[in-house]
Amino acid sequence: MTDAAPLKLFNSLTRQLEPFQPVHPGEARVYTCGPTVYNYPHIGNMRAYVFADILGRTLSFKGYRLTHVINITDVGHLTDDADAGEDKMEKMAAQNAQSIWDIARHYTEAYWADIKALNIRQPAHWSIATDYVPQMIEFAKSIADKHCYELESGLYFDTGSVQDYGRLARAQTEEGEGRIEAVDGKRHAADFAIWRKTPPGEKRQMEWDSPWGRGAPGWHLECSVMSGQLLGFPFDIHTGGIDHREIHHPNEIAQNQAFCCAGGLSDPANSGARVWMHNNFLVERSGKMSKSSGEFLRLQLLIDKGYHPLAYRMLCLQAHYRSELEFSWDGLAAALVRLKRLLMAVQQLKARHAELGSTSSAPTDAAVQGEDWTLKQVQGDEYVRFAGLIERFDAAIADDLNTSVALTVLDEVVALKKVDPAAKLGVIAAMDAVLGLNLLTLDRAALRIRPKGAVIDEAAIEATLTARKDARAAKDFARSDALRDELAAQGVDAMDGDPLGWEWKLGS
Ligand code: AMP
Ligand code: ZN
After folding, report:
1. Pick from 211, 221, 275: nearest CA to 52
2. 250 lines ligand 1 (CB under 6 A)
3. What share of the chain in percent tops pLDDT 70?
């Protein structure tokens, strides 16, 4: 079952769908560019990790032994990706009069909390950039003679020294992209710093000695070094947000080429990773995604407004990762309702399974709890009715991770009538091993988060909703409307027609 549909992934390097062919048979090695921990991640950033998680889960589902690395950038990332501006970490530390190490620890922990809340699986390694500075210096030493040159401000990579520079971005390298730092003496506009010297007379919080003077590594260097060290060149898949396709990843690729052989990119092994994948952006028109705006869109803000974090995961999965996704509160509310419906169905199935007791043969109770499920287990007579749906689910995710189609197939599974509830639970659990919505273990009550700003207590809302239900049952629609208005006056929207029970949300 696991090999039913061959996995195809869109490679940004060739701009084509390609069958996944692991470098090491049976294994999948994946590197994901992680956050720069100078501030809280916004929900757009988290889309990049939901995408990487779906990729990892799909690879596991397809039977590959996954090694996933996500890095934490705590040094070197300037306010502009293209080598200009100040170091993001140094700037935040100066603004808050705190040590960089404290800033990094605080925001790394905040990021990990979001990872957990979104049910993103832990990678095999969280690699921290500052732990790898000696290795970065060694890497730079090994490419310096042939591929770098020194200027007053540091050691620069000569992008003209490798073949096919910028192919990933399809960039016109000589003119640059308009965002490239003007440094006197650079040989090409796109050349970038491998090592940045601390200017004379200045002292930075983070600096190290190197053959090119005291200073700090350039941002692109860390990912080449950590991915090569932890996964070995070439590894299978490198991921990041689509902005990385333009500068960061072309520069990583150039460094990797320099390190391995300086060969061209027609041989996929020379770029360091065989496949480069990028998620498109989550966009928000009013600018709340910007970390500089007052109330920016953090996951915690969604939770404060009464949305379970997995509703955001659902929102992400409803779109293809390569499509731009526009954020709206209505869209999030709809995703929450969809998640509730699935949980309600699972709850009912569990109840029926318990009622039937031992007469229902499969799967085991552990499986019903959502533990250790893969499609391999979904075999046998109980599953014949599901075979077509399982195949379609498998085909959808194998088709460049088409989660939106996979979700509609899951809906069809849920809607299937007259099937063994335990078998249906087994199929849902297997599908959820890929989707990661916690469908088998999440308690529906947990979805009901009280908005932080709610001024009335939940019991009062419940009492009014119950009174309203009684009024409707007695066909006293005038009273029912009056009670609805009463709730609205307190900022609470009653959600009518919801077959799942009495639902309310804080009005916007
Ligand atoms: P940063 O912390 O800025 O390095 O970004 C972390 C990750 O989030 C990177 O993979 C970015 O490409 C990605 N990213 C940044 N903004 C967005 C967005 N609005 N939507 C999706 N991904 C994003
Ligand atoms: Zn990176």
Report:
1. 275
2. no
3. 87
- pLDDT value, residue 181: 62
* Percent of the chain predicted with pLDDT > 90: 65
Residues with CB under 5 A from ligand 2 (ion): 33, 223
Main-chain phi, psi angles of 258, to 5 degrees: -60, -40
Looking at the predicted structure, is the pLDDT value of residue 176 above 60? Answer: no
User: Residues, the chain, total?
Assistant: 508
Mean pLDDT of 248-253: 97
Considering only CA atoms, which of 341, 342, 349, 348 is closest in space to residue 498?
341
d(CA 4, CA 225): 36
* C-alpha of residue 400 to centroid of ligand 2, in Å: 22
Which atom of ligand 1 is the closest one to the Cα of 282? 20
Per residue, the 3-state secondary structure of 211-265, as one string, reads: CCCCEEECHHHHHHHHHHHHHCCCEEEEEEEHHHHCCHHHHHHHHHHHHHCCCCC
User: pLDDT at position 21, please?
Assistant: 97
Q: Is the pLDDT of residue 373 over 60?
A: no
Chain segment 132-160, per-residue pLDDT in tens: 999 999 999 999 999 999 999 999 999 99
Whether residue 175 is predicted with pLDDT greater than 50 in this model: the reply is: no
| Span from the CA of 220 to the centroid of ligand 2 (angstroms) | 6
Is the Cβ atom of 126 under 6 angstroms away from ligand 1?
no
- Segment 370-382 mean pLDDT: 55
* Dist. CA 199 → ligand 1 center (Å): 30
Ligand 1, atom 23: closest residue by C-alpha: 45
Closest-approaching ligand to the CA atom of 77: 1
Q: Which residue has the tokens 């979700």?
A: 407
Half-sphere CA count of 253, side-chain side, radius 13 A: 33
Taking the C-alpha atoms of residue 291 and residue 311, their distance in angstroms, rounded to an integer, is: 22
Give 277 Cα–ligand 1 centroid separation in angstroms.
13
d(CA 431, CA 438): 11
Task: For 348, list phi and psi in degrees, rounded to 5.
Answer: -65, -40
The residues, any chain, with a CB within 8 Å of residue 112's CB and separated by 6 or more, are none
Of 314, 325, 323, which is closest to residue 407 (Cα–Cα)?
314
Pocket test for ligand 1, best of 39, 45, 286 (most atoms within 8 A of CB): 45
Q: Kindly give the distance from the C-alpha atom of residue 33 to the centroid of ligand 2, in angstroms, as a whole number.
A: 4
User: What is the separation of C-alpha 396 from the centre of its chain, rounded to a whole number of angstroms?
Assistant: 19
305 touches ligand 1 (CB under 6 Å):
no
Close Cβ partners of 415 (under 8 Å, ≥ 6 residues apart): none
